[in-house]
Structure formats: structure tokens, C-alpha cells
Amino acid sequence: MDIKTKLQIISGDILGGINSAIVALPQALAFGVATGFGAGAGIWGAIILCFIAGILGTKIPMISGPTGPMTIVIASVAAALGHDMSAVITIMLLAALIQLLFSATNISSIVKYIPYPVISGFMNGVGVIIILIQLNPLIGHETISNTFESIKHFFINLQNINMPAMWLGLLTLAIVFGIPKKLNKYIPSQIAALIICTIVSIKMGLDVPKISEISVSFPKIFLPEFNFSNVITYLPYAATLAVVLSAESMLTGLVADSLTKTRHNPKKLLFSQGFGNIICALTGSLCGTAATMRTVAALNAGATTKLAAVVNPVILCLLLFKFSGFVAEIPLAVLAGILIKIGYDIIDIKLIKVIKFAPKDDLYVLLLVFLLTVFYNLIFAVGAGITLAALLYAKRVADKAHIIQKTVYDDDIMRLEKILEADYQHKIRVVHISGQFFFGSATQMISKFEDVLGTKYLIINYESDDLLDISAIFALEDIIIRLKSQHIKILMVIKNEDVLNQLKSHSIVEQIGEHMVFYSEIDAIEQAKSSLKMKAVKKKRNQS
């Protein structure tokens, strides 16, 4: 590797670290306030976890810190324990230790089997909870972490609105929702809202609730008192938190893999997160996870190595020490507005757009998980969703269990495929998807398509008559995007009219073109051969 390439990598990592730090600052402050620990605990949690997990973690730049789902769990635990923060810190430490245990097992491989409607229902629920519990601070009143209580107090507090706080909150919402996407790449809307609205508050001398105080000194070591009774009492809370922390980190890892076309080590990721969260708990800082939005921000800015995860906390430290006075003046209504935008971003808009095409079974699972997440318990919601998805799938399989007679696959076609691969040096390949293409097989199927480098035309033959569930549809969409990014032309063989109509309704056919969908595999092969020969002729003409 030459010096120029090394400098490009380093500059990309530095830019990625700076960009992700700008995104992280308002979020860490807001999450700290939302949990009841305070803004200082949020920002120090982001600094400590990102630095430690960055050094010990995977080669892919994972930016870590407090996140939405984790905030909701900690706020709920704090409310259940009467806001005994010493007890909550003990629970965070236990959760981090459980994460270390997870890293020594194969539990990280389980996340890929969670059905998409369960993940979507959970994330939608978390997004709605964040929005609901920020309604009171948006109008100048205290944050209430319980969903029911927050709604009830909001209607009571409407009779006594702090008007300056509400106008600042509305201005924040206008900025975070109104800044165009193109401009948002250069100036993240959340940091823009934080700066503009705080300056307005300071200049106008508004009487609104503010952060008021934030510690710029390094956190002190906090040693919780362990005894058998406490461990037994706190263990269910800790297990809940550990699962949320681990699941979100692993999902962020999958997103990073998709963007970088690489594979991270899940065990190493969990170990680094668990170790980092131990230090966070021992310093009274907020624990966290690998954060998807911040990681994507770093990758989009050009980050390629873990150096970005070290630059991020350094930038956060500089901002904290340099602008602590300004941070203390940030109105809580502004942080509420930022959190409402974060809650909105967490909501799965992608699924909502295609929900009318989704199978009823997927909708039942999504609705159950969503309602349980918002109004009962996050982890119970996920468990109930997975159970219901498994039962509904078992029912679908049982309903289809009848004896059918099927002709043995044509030997001529098999010979044709072998000759095709030999004659065209694997430039044309045929892949058969047989059996159920559902949430259990979709993720594994994606990895199979990563071995087609050198292929110019890939024929995907979906032989089953079974409709695809939402997970499989999104997996198929991901496969198409990946293959197209490698300049591979995709042809599909679909023999079932209902499956074809389903793929049309989800715009899958539109992505590859209707002229690239065939009923017969032979027709698809002839089309690929014809296109390949035509390209070769054009290339020869250009060269001559």
C-alpha cells in the first residue's frame, strides 16, 4: 500500500469520526436527559464506550454510544425502581457482564433468524415510545418515562404550557424535519437545531428548563454493592437490557456489513461492547450499543477502519471541554424536539409503505409486537412475536402438507447448465431457489450470492409456488442491489402467477425490468447468451 492510499484511508477515517461525532453529540445529550441520568452521563457514555469498543472491536468502524431502544429500557427500569440510580447502575454492570457471556457463545448467530415483522414491530414501538415520552418536555414540563402516565400528564399539562419552551420545541421540529437531505449531509439537522435554538434562547433570555449543569471532569469510579438478594432482584432487568444492547449492536453490524461488503466478527463485537459497557457502568456513565445512524454517518464520510471510532470520542471530548458553558444553556424542549425526530427515524417507514401488500400473518406478528412494546414490556414483546411467527409458519406448512406428484427435473436442462458454465467461463450462471424462501432462509440465501464475482448474467430460478414473506422480499431486494452494484445483470424465472404478481406489487420486477422475467429457464438462458454475444461484438467493433 503506497503513502497516497494510506493518507486517503486516514483522512477518510478522520472525516468519518468528525461527522459521526457531530451526529452523536445532540443524541447523547438527549438520551442522557431522557433516562434521568443527565446530559453528562449521556455524553461520557458515548465517549467511553466508543473509544473502548473502537479499540477492542472489529476492523469495520463501529461508532458506539447511547441509543433509542437502550434509553427506553433504562428509563423504564429507573421508573420501576423508584429512580434509584445506584440500582440502575448495578443493573447496567450486570447487563454488561451478561454481554461478555454472550460473546463466548454462538448466541450472536441467532439474531439472523428473528423475523422481519418482529424487528419492525419492536423498532416501531420504540420510536412511538420515544415520541410519546417527549411530549411533556416539548411544552416545558418534566419527562415522564411511563407511556400511559406521559399521555395522561400531557393532556393535563396542556392547560399550563410554557409558551417559550413550546415555541423552541416547534422551531427545533421545523429544523430537523425541514432541512433538505442534500444539506443534511454537510450540516446534520440535529446539530443545526441544537445550535440555532440554543442561541435563540440565550439571546432572548427565555425562561425555559435547561440542562443547566454538565460535568466536564472525568467520571469517578463507582463500585456498586453486590449481594445475593440484589442480584436475584436485578437479574431479570439486567437480562432484558443485555438482550437489547446485544441485539441492536448485532443489527448495526449487519447494516455495516451490507454497506462495506465485508463481514464482521459478531463475538468480537459483543465482547468489545460488553467490556466498554462495564467501564461505563463503573464510571456512572450511560451504557450503549453500536449505533446504526452514527456508524452509517462515518461510513458515508469515507471511514474504513476502526480509527474513526477512536477519532469520534476525541472530537466529543474537545466539544465537551470547549463548549460546556454553551451545553449547559441547551433548553430541554430542544432536546425533546431532537428526540421526537429520532423516534420518527426509528419507525420503519419502509414497511409501512408496502404494508397493504404484506401477508396477514406478518401483520398479526407486527401488530402484536408493536402493542406489547408500547404498552407492556419490550423483551416480552420480542419473545411473543417470535413465538407467534413460528406458530403461524408451522400452520402455513401444515396447511400445505399434502402429497403431490412432481416430474423429475429435466436432465437436458441440467446438462445445458453445466455446458453453459464451461463454455461461458461462469459469465452466465443459474441459481435455483427451491423450497420455502422465508425469514429463516432469507439471510442465509443472501450470503450464497456473494460468491458470484466474475459473473455477468445471473439467472435466478424461483421454483416454489409459495408466496414470499416480508423478510424474503426485502432479502431478495438486497440481493438485487448487491448484484447490480457488481454490474451483474439479473434474469428471473418465475413460473407461478401469484408469486410474479407479488414481486410486481413490491417493485422487485421493476428493479430488474419486466423483459428480464421469464417463465422458462431455457428462454432466460438464450436471452443471456444473446446479450453476452451482442456485447462481445460491440466490444470487438470498438477495438477495431
Distance between the termini: 36 Å
- The Cα radius of gyration reads 26 Å
Strand content: under 5%
In DSSP terms (H or I, runs of 4 or more residues), the helix count works out at 25
Q: Pick out the low-confidence regions.
A: 401-410
Please describe the biggest sheet, giving its number of strands, its sense, and whether it closes into a barrel. Answer: 4 strands, parallel
Helix content: 55-70%
Tell me the domain tally.
2
Shape: globular
Can you count the beta strands?
A: 6
* SS-based class: mainly alpha
Instruction: Return the average pLDDT rounded to an integer.
Output: 82
Lateral strand order in the biggest sheet: 3-4-5-6
Task: Explain how this protein is built.
The chain has 544 residues and is mostly helical. It has 2 domains: 3-389, no CATH class; 411-543, STAS domain (Transcription Regulator spoIIAA). The protein has 25 helices and 6 strands. The chain has helices at 3-35, 39-56, 68-80, 85-103, 116-133, 135-138, 147-157, 163-178, 181-184, 189-204, 228-260, 266-282, 292-300, 307-322, 324-328, 332-346, 349-353, 360-375, 378-400, 411-423, 439-448, 470-485, 497-505, 508-512, 521-543, and strands at 64-65, 289-290, 428-433, 457-462, 489-494, 517-518. The protein has a 4-stranded parallel sheet, sandwiched between helices. Strands 1-2 form a two-stranded antiparallel ribbon. Helix 4 (85-103) crosses helix 11 (228-260) and helix 21 (439-448) runs parallel beside helix 22. It starts with a helix and ends with a helix. Mean pLDDT is 82; it is low at 401-410.
